[in-house]
Write a structure and sequence with these properties.
Elements lengths: L1 E7 L2 E6 L9 E10 L2 H9 L1 E2 L2 E2 L4 E2 L4 E8 L11 E4 L2 E3 L19 E3 L16 E5 L3 E3 L6 H4 L2 H12 L8 E5 L3 H12 L4 E6 L2 H9 L4 E4 L10 E6 L4 H10 E9 L13 H5 L3 E4 L6 H10 L8 E6 L3 H9 L7 E5 L4
Parallel strand pairs: 13-14, 13-16, 14-15, 16-17, 17-18, 19-20
Antiparallel strand pairs: 1-2, 1-6, 3-7, 3-11, 3-20, 4-5, 7-8, 8-12, 9-10
Amino acid sequence: MRAVVVHGPGDVRVDERARPAPGAGEVLLAVEWGGICGSDIAYWKRGASGTASLAHPLVLGHEFAGRIAALGDGVTGLDVGQAATVHPASLVGDGVLPERLAGRTNLYPRVRYFGSAAFDPHTDGGFSEYRTVDAAQIRPLPAGVGTEQGALAEPLAVALHAVGRVPELRGRTVLVNGCGPIGSLVVAAARYRGAGRVIAADLSPSSLAVARAMGADDTRDLSAGERLPEDVDVVFEASGAPAALGPVLRATARGGTLVQVGNLPGTAVAAALGDLVTREITWIGSYRFVEEIDDALRALGDGLDVTPLITHRFPLERAEEALAVAADPDSGSSKVMLRMGSA
């Protein structure tokens, strides 16, 4: 079978690998679609994502879906041919969390994630024609949801987790700063959760067009000198740019809530944070998700349309070109999809 394998910085190849067979408790997934994420780009460009660095070749991809091709011994409740996506996280160890973190498995200290070099041996991802998956990580797709949309359940889960960090959005005004794929999905998730008005802001007109298609009522083109709105009840910062923090805090209403969705640098940065104190803003972090992938699938089954997010599609053999398009801020791309097999 073919797989998209990163061998080092700037070195991604479509390699031939043996087709795997499912062991006991496993499922063989014939992968049809995968979505390129920022971590895939980071491994390709730098050989590292966050604090995880490549020690040996890694199959990329944690956003993927396909159809069940075979069942290992002991697997019940699933059928060959069934369309499915995966929950890409699995806990390493006993899974016990302190009481204050009960149920928040996204904060467990040791988690294997598909397409990640955080452990050695690394955890290969799903950018391959076939992938064995623990049956507990399989999530069947609802009726009427195709595998291309199913591949986007993982990033939609990230957005739904972020929106869920605010207890009640119904009827409230929301600002989303940064309209890359996750920011645009936060727009859709906020709308799905009943936000009254959603404003989206970005430096890219093409990203703002995607945000509008995903449900934004109003957009602010920061590259054209437009300013963020004032006194917004709930703000989602999805750019991860330290320079954005000052203006975003100023846009948040006194006593309002700011949810940090975009990953901030792990090194020292300059940022204007004074309004955090003087405006008594509640600043909340949001990291991955727990079981919101199930919520994402329900939302897709309810008719939430994420296809406006998809701007480019490439076949597996053009994976390097797909990564380059996804990484290029001038390409006009939002979510770039790879077609692994028949869909």
